[in-house]
Amino acid sequence: MEKQDIILHVDHMTKCFGDLKVLNDISFDVHRGEFLCIVGPTGCGKTTFLNCITGLYDLTGGQILVNGELVDTKKHNIAYIFQEYSTMSWLTVEENVAFGLKMKRMPKDVIKKEVAEVLEMVGLTKYKDYYPVELSTSMLQRVVIARAFAVKPDILLMDEPYGQLDVELRFRLEDELIKLWQKLGTTVIFITHNIEEAVYLSENILVLTNKPTSIKHKLENTLPRPRNVVEPAFIDLRNQVTELIKWW
Ligand SMILES: Nc1ncnc2c1ncn2[C@@H]1O[C@H](COP(=O)(O)OP(=O)(O)OP(=O)(O)O)[C@@H](O)[C@H]1O
């Protein structure tokens, strides 16, 4: 990997809460435009890790660099989609998606154009004047995704975004996410407990250990897209990840 292609450099990251060591000397790189999935057991510190990247927590040791500089959310454009994410009920779909761009004080005509583009990509153009209360779950999910991609983040962090959804909707949203990622070239770090989801989405998978958490293994995922969960190569890779997880 060329050095200039590395957007995120996690360098000996350690995080303790008092006596509790959660993240233990973790190092890895993410290259620009990569789709990285992180799989780890419950409570191993996946959310803590994301909170360290967004600067909510200070590290106990090590450093996190974005484009070669210490991570700084004022300087770096990092978008974050939580488990319990939500829309702003008092704003229309269009206003929800425009929110981040307005915060960045972009010119009105640019905002209008960018928002229209991303609404088109997620199939919400017709619903731009609707309020969240008028939308189905799947449409709400699309609003949140559209809002995150609209700001053209350097890095998009996604923390189990589809954990609570039924399988069919999850599959559809995963496909849409892949399309947006491919079209916009955004760097995505996606946290999940779901091994099938990680194999379906990722270019690379980081498998974490239990606390104190370190990297158990990094797997490259070169399965061609579109992927099919019943194909032998897919099942093979899914089994490889499952094997790694069995030994936690
Ligand atoms: N602010 C905090 N103060 C003290 N301990 C914390 C704090 N935040 C997290 N922890 C502890 O750090 C550990 C990791 O928590 P974290 O929520 O990051 O795990 P996780 O992998 O995201 O969990 P899950 O799989 O349930 O989403 C837990 O033992 C938790 O109790």
UniProtKB/TrEMBL annotation:
One of its GO terms (molecular function) is ATP binding. SMART domains: AAA. Residues 8-235 form the ABC transporter domain. Keywords: ATP-binding, Nucleotide-binding, Transport. SUPFAM superfamilies: P-loop containing nucleoside triphosphate hydrolases. It comes from the Bacteria. CDD domains: ABC_NrtD_SsuB_transporters. InterPro entries: AAA+_ATPase (IPR003593), ABC_transporter-like_ATP-bd (IPR003439), ABC_transporter_ATP-bind (IPR050166), P-loop_NTPase (IPR027417). Signal peptide: none annotated. This is ABC transporter ATP-binding protein. The lineage of its organism: Bacteria, Bacillati, Bacillota, Clostridia, Lachnospirales.
